[in-house]
Design a protein that fits this description.
elongated, 8 strands, 552 residues
């Protein structure tokens, strides 16, 4: 227990170093102005709704009047619960986000350490394997995507899966099921990716003892996973409904730009400090999949030569690694230069629910990184078996640790300093009881849609229903109407807002070019019988739409 506590503290320290300077001011730093702010809003909404109206969790306050709008992206319930104490103590959405962000590194490393320690009995090898998993360059290319970084529960699930392989007791199966459930509740992407891992791993490693006593082990595993599926069903159904109602699916051709190629596994994050810029160009941000030459070499050693580890276990990790490598390439998978004509991704796309909603097949690299870290742990353990003497072992640990961290080193990271000061309209809206729906103008679409985040993020101060939105999916009709709002007010836009129940319009006049603003103000005068100005803060003006106005 003391050793585990020390290792946990070690991963806290390493995370503080590897993500520096985040630990200095966690309440104001963010990675970028796009996805991190959306994830901060998601956590805030989920925490707020779980405590106030959990039955309507998915009816988020964005994209009004659409329903189930939280299901346009990830709900991140597990991450929201992880930082719930921070929220309850009054922590800002940015602080909540950054606490979860920080803990994903710590828990990923600690979980992998527990897994490799169980399998090898070697604590030093386990620490190195944990470092390889927690601090790979791949993680530093995904800093903006909290929902993808949150794969920390995977190794914990594998810890209890391996214990269940040896001792098929209910305790081990139930704890395995708990952590599988947490993976599913962190991200649909991660859930689908990890279920592929579990399924194929079990096909290879299921032991004979699971078939004893009328298949007791198999039955317990089946009922555990069935229970996980039943518990997850209420969180999966909104995504099914969104797919059916709004046609939320993607064609294979649409996934091509976010699929990996073999050379992408040499692509380091743009924050990387040691490798040449050439490796930073080996892939787009979603497909820089480098896990370290040292880790890959030790994984190869562990796979082939770690004979103290069951061949079935090594083969299980090796097969999942290869399958995940091919799946990360989407429909363009190649093996040793041979085109596989869309396999195996096309098979899963056609027959496994959820695959047609995946935008980024390259994220199957998460499974690749997990397998590499475990196999590297086997390799490290093999090396330490050959080393005699504590001093030599300590020196080797230091050198290998330095090598692992150097291959991922990106500190100091580039953060923006976000001044936590809300535009005055947002706290003001929180005190208005007659708000049915709000639209903030200018409204953005296409390449500028990330600018909507300013409206969405600050809605945590009032939680009024807003027409603006940002997510992984955008309804076609929503985009069409947003285009028309560029000419607001017109009879068509006013009638539409009135029809859907939007009665407040907030115009950020300082964000319009002067000529567009002049034309808008002329149109507003023509609609003076329908738009009542009720508040003004210089460049930010609030109008109330009279629900029964006089047509102009």
């Amino acid at each position: 227990m003391k050793q585990n506590s020390f290792v946990f503290l070690l991963f806290i320290l390493l995370t503080a170093i590897m993500t520096f300077p985040l630990v200095k001011t966690m309440s104001v730093f963010m990675d970028t102005t796009g996805d991190p702010f959306f994830n901060a809003w998601t956590l805030a909404w989920t925490q707020h709704q779980l405590l106030t109206d959990p039955l309507h969790l998915f009816d988020a306050n964005i994209f009004y009047p659409y329903k189930l709008t939280l299901a346009f992206s990830e709900h991140q319930v597990a991450s929201a619960l992880l930082a719930l104490p921070v929220y309850l103590l009054g922590g800002s959405p940015i602080l909540v986000h950054n606490v979860v962000f920080f803990l994903t590194f710590v828990l990923s490393g600690f979980g992998l350490y527990l897994l490799v320690k169980d399998l090898t009995g070697n604590s030093l090898a386990a620490i190195l394997a944990g470092m390889a998993f927690a601090f790979s360059s791949y993680r530093f290319s995904q800093l903006a995507h909290l929902q993808i970084l949150a794969f920390q529960w995977m190794p914990f699930a594998l810890v209890y899966l391996h214990r269940a392989l040896n001792q098929p007791q209910w305790k081990n199966f139930l704890l395995m099921g708990l952590f599988v459930f947490l993976v599913l509740m962190s991200s649909n992407y991660l859930g689908l990716i990890f279920l592929i891992f579990i399924s194929f791993f079990l096909l290879i490693v299921v032991p004979k003892k699971w078939f004893e006593e009328k298949g007791r082990g198999l039955r317990r595993c089946f009922f555990t996973l069935l229970a996980v599926g039943i518990l997850f069903l209420p969180f999966a159904l909104p995504y099914v409904k969104v797919k059916e109602e709004y046609g939320f699916s993607r064609e294979l051709i649409d996934m091509k730009q976010y699929s990996a190629r073999a050379e992408n596994y040499l692509g380091v994050s743009t924050n990387h400090k040691f490798y040449p810029n050439k490796l930073k160009k080996m892939g787009k941000p979603e497909s820089r999949l480098f896990f370290g030459f040292l880790v890959m070499g030790m994984a190869f050693l562990g796979l082939l030569l770690a004979k103290n580890i069951s061949l079935r276990i090594r083969l299980g990790y090796g097969v999942v690694l290869l399958l995940s490598f091919l799946l990360s390439m989407g429909g363009g998978a190649k093996l040793f230069g041979i085109n596989l004509n869309g396999w195996p991704y096309q098979f899963f796309y056609s027959y496994v629910p959820g695959f047609d909603g995946m935008r980024v097949p390259a994220r199957f690299a998460i499974n690749v990184g997990l397998c590499l870290a475990v196999l590297a742990g086997f390799g490290f353990a093999l090396v330490f078996q050959k080393i005699k003497g504590k001093l030599l072992s300590c020196c080797l640990v230091f050198l290998l640790s330095a090598g692992i961290l150097a291959e991922a080193w990106a500190a100091p990271l580039r953060y923006i300093h976000f001044a936590f000061k809300a535009p005055p309209v947002h706290p003001w809206l929180g005190h208005q009881d007659d708000v049915d729906g709000v639209v903030f103008l200018p409204a953005y679409i296409n390449n500028s849609v990330h600018l909507e985040m300013n409206y969405i993020f600050w809605s945590n101060l009032h939680w009024k229903k807003i027409m603006n939105g940002y997510s992984g999916f955008f309804p076609a009709e929503w985009n069409e109407f947003k285009l028309k709002l560029r000419e607001f007010p017109t009879k068509e836009t006013v009638d539409h807002l009135r029809r859907v129940g939007v009665n407040y319009v907030v115009i950020n006049k300082h964000k319009y070019p002067q000529d567009m603003l002049n034309r808008m103000e002329k149109r507003i005068k023509r609609f003076s019988n329908e738009l009542e100005q009720i508040k003004n803060w210089g460049g930010q003006t609030v109008y109330r739409l009279k629900m029964k106005g006089i047509e102009n």
